[in-house]
Amino acid sequence: MSMGRLDSPSRPKGPAVAGGGEPMDRRSGKRKAVPEADTAVAEGTLGHPLPRGGVMALRRLDDAPDAASWLLAAARRHAGGKAQLLRWAGGGLCLDAITTRVAGLAHRMTAAGLRPGDVCVLAGEQIPEVWLALLACWRAGMIAAPLTPAVSWKPNLLRFLRPRRIVQLRMGDMPAPLPGASLPVIDLDAHAGPGSLPPMPGREAFPDSWPALLLHSSGTTGRPKRILHDHGSIVALARCLGPHVLDEQGAGVLAGTPGFGFAYGLGLLLIAPLARGRPVVLAGRRRLAELVDLAMAAGVDTLVSVPTGYRRLLADRHDCLPAAFRCLFTAGEPLDEGTGSRLAAEGARIVDLLGSSEMLSPFAASDGRHPGLRALPGFVLAARTGRSVAGVAAGVAGELLVKGPTAGRMAGRVDHRRAVYRGWLRTHDLVCFLAEERFQVLGRLDDIIVSRGVNIAPREVEAAFADLPELAAIAVTGLPDDIQGQRIVAVVVPAAGSRVRIDGRSLIARLHHLARARLAPWKRPQAWLIVDELPMTATGKLRRGELRLLVQSRRQDLFQSEEIA
Q: Three-state SS for 182?
């Protein structure tokens, strides 16, 4: 089978046929053999390619046969075989044990009848079994599909991957990824004995374009999208994120809240740390405030979470100083200025990362010393202004566009059309470029409120209240209005133990007067709603679509600004 056919977006009438045209080995100049015909995939089942660019050399597997072998070899160079790189409450594994366990699991997968190119669906929980199973899938050439809680089973969920075999993996304490799904289940022993991966007939290595990972986006703005990534993207992520984020910030031992069904959980708690020989502590499904005690006891110096998690930490855990940690990585959504300032005031070093499931890797980061974010080496940025594409220059504002070596493939044609503009990947983030190619995220295009003919980014309004100790959270959305187009509504969550939780009107009155002092008239909330909690994803990202529905369903509970004295 010609591996070049994997990039064809056309839809065939039957499976691809194995044959000539195998990829070339970059070192020896000899042709690599590829898996047999029964593992070949029909053209068109791999989705539609997203724009790639930047430093494509980051994708090279070099002498490694697959991404997992590349990561393990890189870890050995940096840390040695005896370094304990995987830890959890009550246990841990050194690199030698990790390598043996991964090979053993890969052997059991092939012994169970799985072949390169088959799809292994597994729960995206942050537990050792999933961490090891992901590496084993890549080692054996299978597609790992870690699912998030936002993904529910539908018969056509993985239709674009047919005619590949699709199974559910179970092992140890790993929960069922898709309860009730009509998919075969393969139960693997997480504590299997040592085993080596048997050689595949006629195969020396997988090319960097061989599919390895199926991700679903978080679904914060609607239906989760499906993106397929290959071995080259995994290696490119490790080469970019490891030296330019982990090394530059001095990250040592990492722990965090995201699961492995999310791109930044995979990047910051598996791929990049393993490639640089950094230990990770897996904490399961814990909120950041619950994770802190375990992290401090385990010697963690770097935390990974979303801005909402850090806001809750500041509100609920006054006894926990973020300065106890060397570095705080924040990803998943933009960090608001108020939360960043409060964390900095506690003495913490904050690194804000911007990425997407489509790009797999964070493609921009702050450095803790200068305002704004900047593209990581290997990625190229631009801005969409109206119908044109503008280069990076101070003062340019518009939708952020990106190209990079980690771009994946989109499952649906409609999603693909919406994701690409003139050969660039759309981020749907509204940004303004500053000096030295840095930029500031103003908000999501999907979330922009149009009120009285003025475009208003919710984050600008939310930032005005981010420093208030009596608030655990605040989110702003638009409520349809026949005259104004949309009315600005602020949804607030009082801090735990705050006395204003009883007297909601006094809290709203304070916020209303604060808005008059801090915000321009067209940016001030015109209505307020008090709730016990905001609609969030499993990792703490705000679901703005559900927030809009919540406000519309509780119109009768709104406090109107014009009624507040």
A: coil
Look at residue 538 in the predicted model and tell me its pLDDT. 67
Distant-in-sequence, close-in-space partners of 402: CB < 8 Å, separation ≥ 6: 359, 363, 375, 379, 380, 381, 382, 424, 425, 427
Show which of 211, 231, 251 is a domain's final residue. 231
Report whether 254 contacts 269 (CB < 8 A).
yes
Rounded Cα gap, residues 53 and 389, in angstroms: 16
The answer as to whether 552 is a domain residue is: yes
**End-of-domain residue from the set 231, 265, 292:** 231
Query: Quick one: pLDDT band at residue 433, thresholds 50, 70, 90?
Result: very high
Q: Structurally, how many domains does the chain consist of?
A: 2
Average pLDDT estimate for 399-404: 96
Between the alpha carbon of residue 389 and those of residues 54, 356, 422, the distances in Å are 17, 20, 8
Q: Please tell me the distance from the alpha carbon of residue 412 to that of residue 226, in angstroms, as a whole number.
A: 8
pLDDT band at residue 498 using 50, 70 and 90 as cut-offs: low
Q: Which residue has the tokens 């980061």?
A: 365
- Tokens 């119908």, residue located: 387
- Return d(Cα 287, Cα 273) in angstroms, integer: 21
Question: What 3-state DSSP class applies to 55?
Answer: coil
- Whether 227 is in a domain gets the answer yes
Let me know if residue 324 belongs to a domain.
no
Measured between alpha carbons, how far is 127 from 191 in angstroms, rounded to an integer? 14
Going by pLDDT thresholds of 50, 70 and 90, the confidence category of residue 501 is: very low
- Residue 517 forms part of a structural domain: yes
Tell me the mean pLDDT in the region 71-95: 95
Q: Are 484 and 551 in contact (CB under 8 A)?
A: no
- Tell me, what CATH number does 75's domain have? 3.40.50.980
Burial of 91 (0-12, 13-18, 19+ CB in 10 A): exposed
Cα–Cα distance list, 271 to 70, 75, 127, 134, 138 (Å): 10, 10, 15, 10, 12
Residue 550, domain CATH:
3.30.300.30
Identify the three-state secondary structure at position 500.
Answer: helix
Q: Give the H or E element holding residue 551.
A: helix 544-553
Q: Which domain holds residue 487?
A: 462-563
308 burial (CB, 10 Å; 0-12 / 13-18 / 19+) is buried
Is 26 a residue whose pLDDT tops 50? no
Q: What's the CA gap between 361 and 275, in Å, rounded?
A: 14
